[in-house]
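Sync notes, pocket subgroup
Present: LS, DG
LS reminded everyone that the earlier model was apo-only. Rerun requested with molybdenum atom included. Inputs:
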Amino acid sequence: MTLLKVRGACPHDCPDTCGLITEVENGRAVNFYGDPDHPITQGWLCAKVRPYLDHVYHPDRLTQPLRRVGPKGSGQWQPITWGEAMGEIGARWRAIIAEYGAAAILPYSYSGTLGLVQMSVCNGRFWNRLGASRLERSICGAAAEFAVEATLGARRTPRYEDVAHSKLVIVWGHNPVSTAPHFMPHLKDAQRSGTQLVVIDPRRTRTAKGADWHIAPKPNTDGALALGLAHVIVAEGLHDEAWLAAHTAGWPELRARLADYPPDRVAAITGVAEADIVKLARLYATTQPALIKIADGLQRHLNGGQTVRAICALPALTGQYGRRGGGLAYSASGYLQWDSAALNKWAECPPPARAVNMNRLGAALLGEVSDPPIQALYVFGSNPAAIAPNAGQVVAGLQREDLFTVVHELFMTDTAVYADIVLPATSQLEHADLHKAYGHTVLAYNTPAIPPLGESKSNWEVMGLLAREMGLTEPWLYQRADEVIDEVLQATAVTNPALADITLDRLKAEGSIELHYEPDVPFADGRFPTASGKVELYSQLMADLGLDPLPGYAVREDDGGNDGRFAPEEALNLLTGAAHHFVTSSFANQPGLLAREGEPCVEIHPDDAARRGIGQGEMVVVENGRGWCELRAIVTDAVRPGVLASPKGRWGQLGNGRNVNWTTPDALGDMAGQSTFHSNRVWVRKV
Ligand SMILES: Nc1nc2c(c(=O)[nH]1)N[C@H]1C(S)=C(S)[C@@H](COP(=O)(O)OP(=O)(O)OC[C@H]3O[C@@H](n4cnc5c(=O)[nH]c(N)nc54)[C@H](O)[C@@H]3O)O[C@H]1N2
Ligand SMILES: Nc1nc2c(c(=O)[nH]1)N[C@H]1C(S)=C(S)[C@@H](COP(=O)(O)OP(=O)(O)OC[C@H]3O[C@@H](n4cnc5c(=O)[nH]c(N)nc54)[C@H](O)[C@@H]3O)O[C@H]1N2
Ligand code: SF4
Ligand SMILES: [Mo]
């Protein structure tokens, strides 16, 4: 019997983009592990993906197209052929286009896979050619991306291993033990050699438990905290005037702004003791190289963009950008951006239709978007009924009788339940793709290891079927996955030397290849690709958009959708960050991982629990004007008073029909249409 070893890449929403090995016997995957030759993975996988074959061969995998036969959401289905499914979709879409225009069709997708072919190209080409509504993909890190690019010019991040050179690391509103696991061995090694670790998070996370110092501010006040640190650093003359003069624009203006953030005021805003603010400022300014590491959870707030702007100012103040072991670790996405013309083919498409912000899906379906109204929804690689904010509105929208919904999925998710047509999707072991990472710079090819399960098809294959059904003829709608990769690689290489000598053939042969870029340490050449060529502490771009051009802090608070039923002074702030054993809602239907994660729960501080008569392990209702859900209370001082924490990603259908997103706000943040999940006021009571 022959055992095949097939090299792949993890497609999930995680900065590590691990290298995978699947061992295949007679067309069946029999063994699965981390690629020992991949420079980041180094042979080990996270808790979520280690049991991947349980995901791939889950008995609940969808294996054939289904048509709804009962009322929406009733779970009554009839198997149909792909031909019947396409015929029905085509007939409905043609009727909708004739009456309302193609913009009445909304594709909704996000991060089920991060692949070039199965995500990026599938988000663009077919829908652009059809003239469908565009989706503003701002659910995750839009504000931080915008803030970092406006301030530094590009998203570049130090290598994980360079943390060995850091004397101090501040992990700020980020939980890498769960969300960037392959950074952790490097950090732990550094800690063993004396690196100090500070974690700033309202919750004592798994990462905070390993820190020398855990600081727990009130949520959404970190912008003020950063400016308070800056205030102290400058007041004590610990800033690097020469570096600021050489490499920043707007230092005098920022300096004037800092007068507004003395530590006593910042202590009142943030709930962090004045002495701690002073101590952290001194520690940061005198322990160098000093690295600040952030991700996107921190900025899923009404002030998210400005929080990141303020944090970006700190390494400039202390001259830490460009130093090995110093600076800001956020995202590697700026090293390689796929050529947009090759991805999207705009030149051969009708003018772009209007964009719909994905954070407003419920409202959009219920009439906020008109002219034309959304009459058809096509969901792939996402599970909006479980992961989008204000889920009650999303579900109400999905229940609209006149909405024609198609969901392309591996599983009958909370979203797929409301579809008119469900199409079965392949898993990563069943399709080809190319993956760049957002935490590092290793590019990896995913070779399909096994044939598609049942009649499942990849996203890109289905795009081709839809294109044929809609009578579209452009050859770029019908390429094979490898042809797409080859074309985009070559088009991107014309302007980006990071891809020099990296070809599809090499990627297929070697599996993973490191990009070429200089300098090795971000911004070590002192060049920032902003308009001024400097770190833009003052941003004309922000001013032109009507935003505060300087980093700042504004009092912006969620009202919890309070319709008068709740006492404002009793509100708590619910944080719903990453679960350790799921990737948002992916894997949250896998029995082994569900058992390890435990039942849906909410952490509450003992003082807050006592005031409400809530005992350890009791069921509570978490509610506000938007909705409610039931969770088991864990009474613990791991959360600060006033704060609740309950991980994201639960499937309503596996519990009592709801999850935390029935309470989360669909208000937009201060920049880039950002989601604001964590600016969520709720009230809690015993069931
Ligand atoms: N295991 C696992 N890994 C994942 C994911 C997952 O669901 N599970 N999701 C993936 C995705 S989609 C993303 S975007 C990344 C996100 O990666 P992270 O940003 O690391 O993850 P989050 O848990 O969303 O947020 C990090 C922390 O921010 C804290 N936080 C919230 N509000 C504030 C605040 O106002 N101030 C401060 N200081 N801290 C705050 C939360 O308590 C949380 O611990 O992770 C990816 N990796
Ligand atoms: N309360 C709360 N909610 C949040 C967040 C939060 O912090 N708090 N974080 C938000 C963030 S940062 C993000 S990124 C989003 C993530 O939200 P989503 O992008 O919706 O991610 P998942 O929940 O992982 O759902 C992905 C779905 O895609 C399917 N899928 C996987 N691969 C494929 C494929 O190849 N083809 C097709 N057709 N389907 C596939 C999976 O089965 C899964 O059901 O969630 C957001 N939701
Ligand atoms: S989820 Fe992240 S850590 Fe886990 S295997 Fe995938 S890339 Fe690696
Ligand atoms: Mo995300």
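DG: The longest helix spans residues 82-100.
LS: Residues 568-686 form a domain with the Barwin-like endoglucanases fold (CATH 2.40.40.20).
Action: DG to write up.
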